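Repro case for the chain-ordering regression, as requested:
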Amino acid sequence: MAEGGFAIHPMDQFVVKRWFCHDEPATPLINECTQNIHWYDITNVTVWLAVAVLAITLLMVVGSRGRAVIPTRLQSVGEVIYGFIHKMVEDVAGHDGVKYFPFVMTLFLFILFSNLLGLLPKSFTTTSHVAVTVTLALIVFLFVTLLGLARKGIGFLGMFWVSSAPLALRPVLAIIEVISYFVRPVSHSIRLAGNLMAGHAVMKVFAGFASMAAISPVAIGAVSAIYGLELLVAVVQAYVFTILTCVYLKDAVGDAHH
Amino acid sequence: MEGEVAQLALMGKYIGAGLAAIGLGGAGIGVGNIAGNFLAGALRNPSAAPSQTANLFVGIAFAEALGIFSFLIALLLMFAV
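-- result from build under test --
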């Protein structure tokens, strides 16, 4: 662990610990709360994942309860998100991709709410952990691969054989295409986790500066500005994850050569 | 002697983390290039701009991913090695 001069270490916020455990140790990394965590233990990650799911359910179920012609505030929020994602799936994945809209919508809402809930003070950003985002990315990867093979059969592999290139170049391009196909879940998941982790670490670094009296006014201004930037990043990264899902979905359902 | 080797390894770790973070500069150039060119194109033909925002974000995401990889290497060197 790096020896920093900070009152709060910027990476301490990402430590996974048991929820019902209030040990206040000298070192936040190794203590009773963080050791020997089993899969059935309730940790801060699982709690905030559950809060995200509950919040989405509340927004969508309570919001659509009235089904008013003139929507209430909550209903119009739900409608705007629904319409936005529906249009995106239709534009990017094509007409055949609209069938898989519920999947994309679920992904978007889950990531958006995890990102935004992570911005609350004292909360935990679940999407800053690669373990969470790689699960989402692998679901997308396996779903798209299996769907493509099911819909197009062996023709799905024609995606790797670039027929518009000269014949001599095609084997080389095929290797590059295969590699880039299998790197997709890596970049898909690392992008989300990396952005969130970097943003929150920067925020905590400036929060650490705020404890130094000489520069605290500047640091408090900076941390407020970065909070605003992080709000933007949280929404944009959820959007980027979803739009890339749509791009990948297009490979499976759309016409690859046109 | 043992301590000196450990100190050298620590130094190498921190220098490596700093070098890996340079990669983020490339991502910054890339993202700025995409956004600037989008703006230049959008000002020439504003009516075509809204239909291209999806491409803008996909391009930014691809450019940014490579920078994030180098950031990840820096983090791994700092906290995992």
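Ordering looks correct now. The mean pLDDT of chain A is 87.
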